[in-house]
Every structure is written in structure tokens, then in C-alpha cells.
Design brief:
- This protein is of the alpha+beta class.
- Helices cover 30% and strands 30% of the residues.
- It is built from nine helices and twelve strands.
- Strands 1, 2, 3, 4, 5, 6, 8 and 12 form an eight-stranded mixed β-sheet that branches. It has a four-stranded antiparallel β-sheet with strand order 9-10-7-11.
- Strand 9 and strand 10 form a beta hairpin.
- It is globular.
- The structure holds cytidine-5'-monophosphate (C5P).
- Cytidine-5'-monophosphate (C5P) binds next to strand 2 and helix 5.
Length: 286
């Protein structure tokens, strides 16, 4: 039996540079793992096969689920005499811009590696991850990292100082594909070079001027209400706040834990999660 905690991610910087011939967008992103997490429990079954159990409703059918796909992909490359049963405790909201599915997928790959004692390296796990989605390579490592290409080329960055924040999840989902498809084909954008360099040097503290997200404008064309949620969080006095990924979740950080806890009280009517920055993407618990 193996248990894995899989951390959500947010984006401090998300620059969309241009659309690529393969249909994906070329990106430059600063990604950060945060303490909101799903937990996976994996155990072997006597016969080969994949059983996925989850208490909460998940939108995709089981065979479409990234946990299921991670098992399928790993078993097809590294066949086993036994199967696996995976139980998912879901806490990260779905279609929220927090890479919950990608985090579970990365956690599954690490969990299978341990459960079946495969001894696969991070590079071998990353090769599997990149066939499954763009954010999974980051989630295999986590912490603070620069992600380039379609999001799959990862360079670790100095960890940001431990910061206390909130995630505010507006009451509607946004699909990643729909936000990217709102970008005109001819769009070209620039790297936020100064912001990227400030993360490369190591930040003394998070501040509003180190954040940027090109996807906000496009997400807002689909859900104009996003600005109401951004304004609501702005009123709670954060030192830094922004939409994460393709949205709709908005994150905010505060000067200390007490300020964060006060803001948490103010936002109680909303779907809101207290978070901290963490220095890894997953944790093997047993
Ligand atoms: O790779 P992943 O399955 O997570 O991406 C979901 C969708 O987001 C893709 O099908 C694509 O429409 C869009 N996307 C993109 N450029 C990226 C990453 C994702 O256009 N770099």
C-alpha cells in the first residue's frame, strides 16, 4: 500500500508567446506548488488491471481520467503481473486552473514507481508524463519552477519565501482548452523578462509587480464575472493576487498568516481555501 499527497499549483507568471504548428501555445511560466492537495491510496490487486475509486463526482469517465491514463501508460511500457486499485480523496476543485488532474497524474506515476519497485528515474517518469499532458512534468517535481515550451520544459527556481494565501474558486468551471481557443491564431506575446529574472535571482517576498497572466483577458471574454471575484479579493488587502492558469481560481497572498486568516473570514460566503507555498509537488506518505 502506498499513499501519495498531490499538491495543486498556481502560476505567478504565465506568458503566452505564440501558437505553435502542433496546435499548442508556446509559453513561459513561473509555477508554484501550494498546500491544497488530493490524496491517492494505491494497492496491488492479484490480477492485472486498473480499478479507480473516488468518493466525489469526477466529470470525466474513469477511462478518460488522468489517474487511469497514467496507470495505462505506465503498464503498457512496463507490464506487471499484478494490477492496481487507486482510491482518490479529491480536495482540489476541478477545471479550476489549479492542475488538480495533472497533480493526481504525477502522484500516480510516483506511487506506481514505489508500489511496484520499478526504480524509474525522474527523466523516465517525465517521458511518460509528457505523453499525458502539459502540466504533469512540473507536478512530478513541484516547488517553484520555470516552465517553457508547451509547459513541459522545467527548470527549477529558488523557492519563494514561505507565503500565506487563499484560493478563491468562483462558482463556475473553465476548461483549459476553451480559454486557449479564445486566443486569436495570429496572437504574439512577449516574455515578462524582468519578472522571470526576479524569480531566477530569488524573491525576497511576493509582490504584485512580480505577477502576470496573459490568459486572464481571454478567460474574461468567456466569463466576464471574473473581474467581480478579482475585485472582491483585492478588497481584502493582499500583497499579491491574480488568476491562476486558465482560471477561474484567483489566488491571493498576504503579509502574514494573521492577515490571511482575517481575509479568509471576510470571504466565508465564497468557496475559499487557505494555502501556503510548498517546496515540492507530491509527498509519498507510506
Ligand atoms: O496538455 P493539456 O492536455 O493539459 O492541455 C489542455 C489544452 O490546453 C490543450 O488541448 C490545448 O488546447 C491547450 N493548451 C495550449 N497550449 C499549451 C497547453 C495547453 O494550447 N501550452
Amino acid at each position: 500500500m502506498v499513499a501519495v499527497r498531490c499538491y495543486a499549483k498556481i502560476n505567478f507568471v504565465l506568458d503566452v508567446l505564440h501558437k505553435r504548428p502542433d496546435g499548442y501555445h508556446e509559453l513561459a511560466m513561473v509555477m508554484q506548488s501550494v498546500s491544497l492537495a488530493d490524496t491517492l491510496h494505491l494497492k496491488t490487486t492479484p490480477a492485472p488491471g486498473i480499478i479507480l475509486k473516488t468518493k466525489k463526482e469526477i466529470t470525466a469517465s474513469h477511462s478518460e481520467n488522468l489517474i487511469y491514463k497514467a496507470c495505462q501508460t505506465l503498464f503498457s511500457k512496463y507490464p506487471q503481473n499484478q494490477g492496481v486499485e487507486v482510491t482518490l480523496e479529491k480536495n482540489i476543485p476541478l477545471a479550476a486552473g489549479l492542475a488538480g488532474g495533472s497533480a493526481d497524474c504525477a502522484g500516480t506515476l510516483h506511487g506506481l514507481n514505489k508500489l511496484f519497485q520499478l526504480g524509474l528515474s525522474l527523466a523516465e517518469l517525465t517521458d511518460l508524463a509528457n505523453t499525458l499532458g502539459s502540466d504533469i512534468a512540473f507536478c512530478l517535481r513541484g516547488g517553484t519552477a520555470l516552465a517553457e515550451g508547451r509547459g513541459d520544459k522545467i527548470t527549477l527556481l529558488p523557492p519563494v519565501p514561505l507565503s500565506y494565501g487563499l484560493l478563491l474558486k468562483p462558482p463556475f468551471p473553465l476548461s483549459t482548452a476553451s480559454v486557449y481557443s479564445a486566443i486569436p491564431r495570429s496572437y504574439t506575446g512577449e516574455r515578462s523578462q524582468a519578472k522571470l529574472e526576479s524569480f531566477q535571482k530569488g524573491l525576497p517576498a511576493l509582490s504584485q509587480d512580480c505577477l502576470h497572466n496573459d490568459l486572464y483577458t481571454f478567460a474574461q471574454t468567456i466569463k466576464p464575472q471574473l473581474s467581480d471575484y478579482l475585485n472582491q479579493i483585492k478588497k481584502t488587502g493582499p500583497t499579491a493576487y491574480q488568476m491562476s492558469g486558465s482560471g477561474p481560481t484567483i489566488f491571493a497572498f498576504y503579509s502574514n498568516r494573521i492577515q490571511r486568516d482575517k481575509a479568509y473570514q471576510l470571504l466565508q460566503k465564497e468557496e475559499v481555501y487557505p494555502i501556503e507555498t510548498v517546496t515540492k509537488g507530491f509527498e509519498l506518505l507510506s
